[in-house]
Amino acid sequence: MSPDHVRAYAIGKLGWIRKQQARLSGQQRESPRLVVERESHALWGRRLLLHIEEVNTAPRVEVHPRNLIMFLRPGSTLEKRQRILAAWYRNELRKEATGLIDHWQQRLGVQMNKLFVQAMSRQWGSCNPSTRNIRLNTQLAQKPRSCLDYIVLHELAHLSVPTHGEEFVALLDSLQPDWEERRRLLNDLPLLDG
After folding, report:
1. Which residue, of 7, 9, 116, 177, is most buried by count of CB atoms within 10 Å of its CB?
2. Does 129 score more than 50 pLDDT?
3. What does the pLDDT read at residue 7?
C-alpha cells in the first residue's frame, strides 16, 4: 500500500484508536513486582504469597496452596529474581496454553505454526494469519484460566476468519457463548506495570 492509503486508513480508524487508548489508560494498574518476601503474586486468578528460600541449587519456583516458593542462590539480585519469575510464568502459560490450543485447533479445524509467549504491553494476544503464528501475553498466567481459554480461541479463530466482523463474532458465539463475559472480566482485571 502507498503511504497515502495507509494514512487514510489510520485516519478512518482514529475514533476507535482513541477509544482503545482511553480504555487502556483507565484500566486499573498494579505496581511492578519487586520479588521480595511476602509479596503478593497471582497464578490463574489466585493470590499467592511469595516466600524466598536461599539455597545452593539451581533456581526454581514451586506452587503451594497459598504460596509461591522461590528457591534462589544466596545474594540473587532483583534482576535475577525477576528473570527467574518471568521465565517461570512463561513456562506455566505455555504448559496451560498447549492443551487449550490442541482442543481449539481440533474444534476449529485449523493448525497454527508457532506459539510465542512474551511480555506484551498493549494486548493479550495476537495472530498472524499469513504465518499462522500466535502470540500470548505472559500476564495471562496471572488471570483466571477462563480468560486464557477465551484468548486462545480468539487468536486461533483468526486462522479461519482474519477480521473481527460478523462472521468472526458468530464463530465465537457458536463455540464459546460466554466469550464476551470472559473478555470483560479480563479487561476489568488490573494490568501489571513494568
Report:
1. 116
2. yes
3. 72
From 72, 37, 31, select the one nearest 51 (Cα to Cα): 37
> Which residues partner with 72 through β-bridges?
54
What is the pLDDT averaged over residues 52-67?
96
Cα 181 from chain centre: 17
User: In 3-state terms, the chain is what percent helix, strand and coil (to 5)?
Assistant: 45, 20, 30
CB atoms within 10 A of CB 39: 14
pTM of the model: 0.83
Angle at 187 between CA 64 and CA 88, to 5 degrees: 30
pLDDT band, very low/low/confident/very high, at 147 (cuts 50, 70, 90): very high
Kind and range of the H or E element at 40? strand 40-43
Phi, psi of 43, deg, nearest 5: -140, 120
Distance of alpha carbon 27 from its chain centroid, rounded? 16
Three-state SS for 55-79 is: CCCCCEEEECCCEEEEEECCCCCHH
Name the 3-class secondary structure at 192: strand
CB 114 within 8 A of CB 155: no
